[in-house]
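Module 6 notes. Inverse folding takes a fixed backbone as the condition and produces residue identities as the prediction. Think of it as a translation problem where the source language is geometry and the target language is the twenty amino acids. Below is one complete input and output pair. Work through it position by position during the lab.
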C-alpha cells in the first residue's frame, strides 16, 4: 500500500511539474522529456561511485514497462554487479558500474524479438540518464555474454540481445566535451509534402 501511495505521489508531482512548465503537450524544447532526450549522451568517463540498488531497481522497472509487440514482453534482464564477471564481457569496466543484459525469448522459428529488447534497453537508458547516471548501450560485446549464458543464469529459451552499462560519471564532463558529434538533421531527414 505504501509503495502504491508513493508511486501515485511521484506521478502527481511529475505531472504537476510538466503542467507547470506550460508544455504538457508540447513537442518543443522546454518539455522535460524532450529536453532529456535531446541532451542524452553515452559517456565513457565513469567514476568508482557504485550505482545503488534503488537506482538499479528503478532502471529495471522502466525496462519492464517498455512497449512490445502484442504486449508479449519477451525479455529477461540479468543485472551484473560482479566486477570480475563484467571484465570478461567489457574489459574497461569501472568498479561500481553495473551491466544489464537484455535477453530475448527465442521463438519457434528461431528468431528473437530484437526490436522489443531494443525498446526495453532504450527505456532503461533514458531512466538512467534521468537519474544523472551515465549509460552506454552495447551490441558488439554481446557475444561474450552469449558464451557465458548458463553461468549468468539466463534462462533456457532466451538469448542475450543487448547490454546496458550504467555508472556514475564525472560531473565535470558534459555532452559537448565528452560525446561524439552527431549528424545534422539535414543529413538524416527529408520531408515529402
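Target side of the pair, the amino acids:
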Amino acid at each position: 500500500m505504501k509503495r502504491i501511495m508513493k508511486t501515485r505521489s511521484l506521478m502527481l508531482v511529475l505531472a504537476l511539474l510538466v503542467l507547470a512548465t506550460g508544455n504538457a503537450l508540447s513537442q518543443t524544447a522546454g518539455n522535460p522529456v524532450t529536453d532529456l532526450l535531446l541532451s542524452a549522451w553515452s559517456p565513457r568517463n565513469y567514476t568508482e561511485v557504485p550505482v545503488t540498488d534503488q537506482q538499479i531497481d528503478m532502471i529495471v522497472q522502466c525496462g519492464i514497462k517498455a512497449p512490445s509487440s502484442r504486449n508479449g514482453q519477451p525479455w529477461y534482464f540479468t543485472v551484473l554487479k560482479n566486477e570480475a564477471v563484467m571484465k570478461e564481457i567489457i574489459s574497461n569496466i569501472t568498479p561500481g558500474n553495473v551491466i544489464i543484459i537484455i535477453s530475448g525469448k527465442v521463438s519457434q522459428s528461431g528468431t528473437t524479438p530484437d526490436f522489443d529488447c531494443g525498446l526495453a534497453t532504450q527505456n532503461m537508458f533514458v531512466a538512467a540518464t534521468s537519474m544523472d547516471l551515465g549509460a552506454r548501450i552495447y551490441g558488439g560485446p554481446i557475444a561474450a555474454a552469449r558464451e557465458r549464458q548458463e553461468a549468468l543464469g539466463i534462462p533456457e529459451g532466451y538469448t542475450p540481445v543487448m547490454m546496458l552499462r550504467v555508472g556514475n560519471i564525472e560531473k565535470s564532463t558534459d555532452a559537448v566535451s565528452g560525446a561524439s558529434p552527431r549528424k545534422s538533421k539535414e543529413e538524416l531527414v527529408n520531408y515529402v509534402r
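Reference fact for the lab report: The beta strands are 75-80, 98-105, 134-138, 158-167.
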